[in-house]
Amino acid sequence: MDKNMVLAFQDIQKKQAAIELGACNEITIKYGLALSDTDINELVENRFKSLKDTGRIEFSEGILKKIVEVFCDSPYIMQQNYKDTLMEIQETFYFFKNEAMDQIADDELIEFMKRHFDGKCQGSLEYLSGTTLEDLCRNTRYGYEVDDTDIYGHEF
User: Known InterPro entries for this protein (predicted)?
Assistant: First the structure.
């Protein structure tokens, strides 16, 4: 495929992603969260950087819109850390999608991340990626059952 054609396709994807992300503000504003045009552009650029860094390719809308919709009601996300948190969640998603060898569906991984981010991890992305997601991927790779309990041992 011609390099110019690939770049043109990527530009179309970026514009579409920016439009979809901007539309998410209608949902997130009721939680006191909104992305500026600059934030949206940074998130879209970060998406393509994360995809490149992890060796992944997406042909559809991507996962950022889903992440925004799922995580917007988290009590641990404020306007001040909203964009940075979304960037880190997105990077973490792609990394662990690879670590799980694509054996976990996108929606399932996002829901797992959200449950544990709001629960056991209490808003800590470091804890989420350093323990909970590591356990999930290891258990998925080796066929073990996933511990899906909160900090008190209660099932989600």
Answer: DUF6323 (IPR046286)
